[in-house]
Amino acid sequence: MKGPRRIYDAFYSSVGMLFAQRHGFFRAYHDTVFRRFWSHELEIDDLAAVTDVITSCGGSASKFEAYVHGPARAEHDRIIDEAEALGVFGVPTMVFNSELFWGGDRIDMLIARIENPETIEAALGSHHRKPG
To answer: What confidence score (pLDDT) does residue 129 get?
Structure first.
């Protein structure tokens, strides 16, 4: 893998992910974008390039572009606002029962919490807010 060449606006690739989730080809989309971006074969801020990935995974170019030019921006921005309100600041970030887990080294902690959700009170103490 190679580092990024510049700072990208990931809007097209991000809403491509949302589109792929809804249309049943998330894994193929994710794996293709990840591999091609990190090998400098994909410009994630180029609508035509992301549309090509969508179609190569079996998606509809016209439906994707209608989504991009329609509700995608509002949905994208809402998700970002919700994530920021939860305290998300980097990737990977996972949230389970209002508890934030940041970093790949926290995945084992997340699995443990999923298997034993009652341990949250011991982990967070007075910072724990019961859902409801």
So the answer is: 56
pLDDT digits (tens, 9 = 90+) for 22-60: 999 999 999 999 999 999 999 999 999 999 999 999 999
C-beta separation of 30 from 14 below 8 A: no
pTM: 0.76
Question: Backbone phi, then psi, for 123, in 5-degree steps?
Answer: -75, -40
Rounded CA-CA distance 13/17 in Å is 6
Separation of alpha carbons 22 and 132, rounded Å: 28
Nearest to residue 123, comparing CAs of 103, 98, 105, 104? Answer: 98
Spatial CB neighbours of 10, under 8 Å, sequence gap ≥ 6? 44, 45
